[in-house]
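Students often ask why we bother encoding 3D structure as a string. The short answer is that it lets us treat folding as translation between two languages. Here is a chain of 123 residues written in the first language.
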Amino acid sequence: MLDRNQARRDALVGALKVEGHVPVVVESGVDAARALAVPGLDLLVIDLGIPDVALGTLRAALGPEQSAEPEPLEVVERQHIAQALKFTGGNKRRTAHLLGIARSTLLAKVRKYRLDAGPETPE
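And here it is in the second language, the structure alphabet:
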């Protein structure tokens, strides 16, 4: 069973192909940066929920002559927590220690930013 986001992505990819585009689906901000380097790029669609997508860097890459506005603190915090969770393999106790915050604070932020990976995630 496809999750809702994957179904949406597949529908978008299908629609773009019908219109003659050659969509490239990537799973990380690093892969997205590589895709931007491909000559002839005529369209860019980004899931801003990808934890390692740095909006400031993206803005600079798309329009280097423009001064990038700083990202909101919540965006940066969400990305940082997501990266820390990924680094610890989802271990919330270890992540909280790494970030220097209480585990209960981390759990509240995980809920706030909807970073729950599901029941298989270690506590």
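Translate back mentally: Residues 73-112 form a domain with the Arc Repressor Mutant, subunit A fold (CATH 1.10.10.60). Keep this in mind for the problem set.
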